[in-house]
């Protein structure tokens, strides 16, 4: 069975991000880029399945500008057998990626498609789900445990959901998106880096796959979140009451200076102030 | 010969005992002096049956009955080398003791906040990071400006009160804590960054700034500090300057020393020396700031520092490698210097004992090369401006080294997280050693080809009694030799010292590459410096601090200081 793994090149997790002065996006030039951490986990899982003998080949795929090749090389150095790079220099949204993956899956026919649950740059958490929809394949998202049963052609996935853990049994072929606790990715060792140099990276374009990249979304502005104001340390309870009264305007102050309208409006203002106190 | 001895023994029966005592060191029980007792025989009555001495469980060690806890309580019997007993300093009686007037004076100039008298805080300030040295100071002062430091020192000098300058208290040789009741002058409250020039990269800041804070501040501006230590979260820049602290990740061309462009120092009598230049080149007169760098607070208290910070280079690559033996490590180093050239920014090594210790005692770390047991691990870091170029250079160097058999295996960090976890392994060794129990720490500069021979000899000498752990900056020829045991034990100490110092001295190495002398090595300077040099150092100390109030009992041997006229007990 072949396993296909989706890999995205993103700004390194440990880098401090800066917004561009024109607010059109985040500064990416001269910034350290690496493989999306969730994708590393997905690739590690694929490699473990292959090493246990239940898969024959692991194919790493990435969509994006020419530098994606570096990220794919890392994937090959970790142990993937070959890679595919779909080159596209512009902005890409999850639906376009999903369509590209559908085309690739139709061509390569893997038994399992693994993706990270979300990319750390856009936090969309959509691509895996969309691909599963397009392919009409079952999906197990936020996987924290994956057990493959190739005899019965099913895969059991433990999912991390808000309420706890949910266990699903999916028929193969299936789409799985990986979460943090699934595994700890391996390091790229020198012998493997050496082997990776001779592994193949196939280049394709979206046109080759007959996919048109268009988007229904347009980013208008990117800004930094408002800076957190420092807390204030007060020296006594009296000072606290004084500050609450005069600066935070909490307490009987609400009677003035605003003009309170009778009836429903007054009720609204009052509950607003109560919220402030509780906060 | 035999006849003479026999006759002597017959005439004075205590001869044997005396001879035995000559070879055995004194035994000290809880500070009480005691002796070996020889059993009585049928022919001669000896002291073992002597009234007033009980025999400790047949061991032949006599404990006077007058000892208060002789009934049924356990004792720890120390076998002490006489030498280790005499190295503890004696309080210099010419120093005054604190009185109420002093305290009110300090409160007047520093305010209530600046005077610390509480037991708990003093306890922390009196104990060093390794918990090896503890003073008994009753007063800690926290000045907030150079002016206040000057006033404090002026007063202390006139009253002859000994002082200890203190910053982050992360020193490893007992130089940052009092020995007796010296007043602690803690500069932590002086933590402002005064100015930063974005074009030249010159940073002016106060001595109490924590190194990590400075590093993050500079990071925002696109610069880096020319030094990095494992202790960066707590150590302060004033202390770094006074110790001339080494660098964990810095190489030949950019040493810390050359990065300091100016200092502001307060002398023992309160004089403020403003040498806070911000110029790259200044050849006017003697460059006095060099005197204070590395003086460990014994010539003056550093209050401000101006540093030339190098710009931050964007591409950093880190490789964690495994070597078979020490010779390959060395060959790898010379190849690295040649092949990687200017982008090589760090070359660290650690041995298998260090790796095991770190993995055992620190959480969240895993061995990057778990597949086999390797004897030596190396960390190579490159820093440059072109990511792809540097990575290619490093990769091809590593692959070639592997083909040539210089290294067995290795991993290349693929992102910043992996890189920090590799660094954590190397930087976490001191912490792991602390958790493992007691540690005897030695920081030596040795010729690179001989470095590991010392480690192997120590292992032979100590056998299974202790765990000998070695790591260090191979690139600088700096070995950190650490001997880890369950508890501090004088018999182990006697096997280590002075052997380590003598060995180093023979190789013309340094007994303290970067930690300084402090209290631990105060009397050991002669292993690495000639008598004339030390005499001149003492003369300079006498000139700048005639009353000897700044950090006494440390750095220079007390005997030399007394010769040159600095008062001694």
CATH fold-level assignment of the largest domain in chain B = Uridine Diphospho-n-acetylenolpyruvylglucosamine Reductase, domain 3
* Strand arrangement, major sheet of chain B: 18-15-17-16-20-21-19
> What structural class do the secondary elements of chain B suggest?
alpha+beta
Number of helices of chain B: 20
Number of helices of chain A: 7
How many domain regions of chain B? 5
Mean pLDDT of chain B: 84
Number of strands of chain A: 12
Provide the helix percentage of chain B. Answer: 25-40%
**Which geometry of chain A do the CA atoms define?**
globular
How confident is the prediction overall: mean pLDDT of chain A?
87
Instruction: Report the CATH C-level class of the largest domain in chain B.
Output: Alpha Beta
Instruction: Pick out the low-confidence regions of chain B.
Output: 27-32, 56-60, 67-86
Backbone CA Rg of chain A: 25 Å
Keywords (chain A): Electron transport, Mitochondrion, Transport
Protein name (chain A): Electron transfer flavoprotein subunit beta
Main location (chain A): mitochondrion
Pfam family, one (chain A): ETF
Task: Outline the structure in words.
The complex is a heterodimer of chains A (279) and B (569). Chain A is of the alpha/beta class. Chain A is built from seven helices and twelve strands. In chain A, a hairpin with a 2-residue loop joins strand 8 and strand 9. The longest helix of chain A has 15 residues. Chain A is globular and about 75 Å long. The C terminus of chain A is likely disordered. Chain B is built from 20 helices and 21 strands. The longest helix of chain B has 17 residues.
